[in-house]
Amino acid sequence: MTDAGSRDMPDEREKTGVGAWLDARLPVVSAFRREYVDYQTPRNLNGLWNFGAILTVVLLVMLATGIFLAINYTPTAAGAFASVEAIERQVPSGWLLRSIHVTGASMFLAALYIHLFRGLYYGSYKAPREMLWLSGLVLLAMVMFTAFAGYVLPWGQMSYWGADVAGKAVDAIPGVGPWLEHFLQGADAPGDVSLHRFFILHMVLAFAVLGVVGVHVAALHVTGSNNPLGIEPTGPRDTVPFHPYYTSKDALGLVLFALLFAVVVFFLPNVVFEAENFRPANPLHTPADIEPEWYFLPFYGILQSVPSKFGGLLASVGAILVLFLVPWLDRSPIRSARFRPFYRVCMGLLVVCFILLGFVGRHHAQGGWMIAGRVAVVYYFAHFLVLLPLSARTERGIVLPDGIADAGRRGA
Amino acid sequence: MRGGMRLRFGFLLGLLASLADISHAMAQAGPHDRPPHQVWSFEGPLGRFDLSAVQRGYAVYAQVCSACHGMKAMTYGDLAAMGLTMEQVSRIAATQQVPGGVDAQGDPVTRAATPADHFRDPFANPEAAAAANNGVAPPDQSRLALVYPGGPDRIYAVLTGYREPPAAYRPSHAGAVYNPYASGREIAMPPPLRDGQVVYTDGTPATAAQEARDVTTFLAWVAQPHLEARHRLGMQVVLYLLFLAVLVLLLKRRVWSDVH
């Protein structure tokens, strides 16, 4: 749509040589030029648009480090913990690869949440980008399964009891629950079979994520990027070529993100490594405080705030599923929250509730946290099911800018 | 627009706050006195180990702790990283007998350990360990300095904290002794260290406090054997990335100079 012209303009330099020969048979060179060099991109993307590139790079880092960890890993209940200790102690640079992989999981989920927030806030899910949104949500779900399966693999106390809690949650599903728990774990409690299954699941899903990222990026390049104003570019004045403008901007975002990443890996590993997980799994000794990794805490908070076990499971799974409906729940023709005062306030409250639910999960929804958790759960669903559909009614007489370039000039 | 910025900032801040909150999550079972803070060379983002203290601490471990506590994850070869030569490591390994498979008659035999062997466990299994120690198996020490709530400060406090119990104290089980820094102010381990118990080859006076300090340093080193390499590499990586960030920032501003 944005670059229909570039297809028909062969580059003079590429008419001879190996590049031209290859391109005539498999147009990788011209496709790359079309999609990553000449590709017209809105000129006003802010820093939040860096996170797509950041996520891609972190994913590749996860796959690269993960393969080396898998080579040295033993997926048995008797050998898993010792093999991870061997990676940490005896395998050359194993400690570094593992630290990058563990930190990468947290960083990936953090970047993913920011990326998701960006999509919600600027209405990137609206027509014609529904498939982009849906493929992104599929990725979110896949990444969560991958992260959970990966967390079980070191077979420390938190790995074991985390798997146990998840198994019990699945068990709470009426009818199929016990069967499904047995299907996933291979037994009534986590053990050899579950570890082997989680290992395979972790590896297969990781590469499947890479494939779905391909679909996600392809969908992006069909419609082009949304932007902070939420209006489509009207002409060349509103866009810049991807290279060198967004390659340089993404590079800056990547280096700053890598800096944060490095600080955690080298100086603050305790932020991502749970000390309790350095104790080997012991089915006879339940830890005092079982809690999932921070990125699952909001959903753990929902699970624990709802009085019924199955209800809690429904609510925490529903918290993700409801996102799939967002493109059809939101009736407003305006994309960006910048021009939607009511929706903007609602989004702020949603972020507050999401973080609050994380703290509720940390405190096991006890005492006052239970009340806070229930209020936050109610708001979370009310936001999507009531406020979002109604918000369009509050938006009368809003004038959107005519073009991105004009809006920029007016703002400056 | 400004509201959006605030929202974004608040969101990031919230994420960081929840991260920071989690790092302090340490369940401390049973009441105990607060261990006084000690100054350790390995503390902080630039911390490093005093390898002579680590070596003395190994002497304490080998001559005292290893009688009851295993250190499964360590191999004798790993000791080279505390400043020993491979010959020294091989000599240490050779003093230990480990299971060596079976002989021609099918009877289990032992052999001298090599640097590739893991530290010998003092007990055949956890049940034997518990049976020999009044029903409480001594914990493995591979990661003790990380997993023991309170870390090195509390390990040192426990080792030096044995004293006359208050009049009201009654041991809850056979072999339990009073220690204000242990969980529930009681511990199953009798006082392990006394003055002159260990022979130091570097001439350091082997007081009980010195032994406790050295063995705590050794346990911290064992729990995080790559701490020093991590900090050194971290400084290099961070400095490199900072330099790169400046270059990329200049590049980005130059590229965008005709747009803004």
TrEMBL record, chain A:
Primary role: Component of the ubiquinol-cytochrome c reductase complex (complex III or cytochrome b-c1 complex), which is a respiratory chain that generates an electrochemical potential coupled to ATP synthesis.
Subunit structure: The main subunits of complex b-c1 are: cytochrome b, cytochrome c1 and the Rieske protein.
Membrane topology: Multi-pass membrane protein
Organism: Gluconacetobacter aggeris
GO cellular component, one term: respiratory chain complex III
Bound cofactor: record note: Binds 2 heme groups non-covalently.
UniProt record, GO biological process: respiratory electron transport chain
Cofactor: heme b; heme
Protein name per its UniProtKB record: Cytochrome b
Protein residues bound to heme b b566: 115, 216
Xref: Pfam families: Cytochrom_B_C (PF00032), Cytochrome_B (PF00033)
Cross-referenced CDD domains: cytochrome_b_C (cd00290), Cytochrome_b_N (cd00284)
Residue numbers binding heme b b562: 101, 202
Claim: Zinc is one of the keywords in the record: no
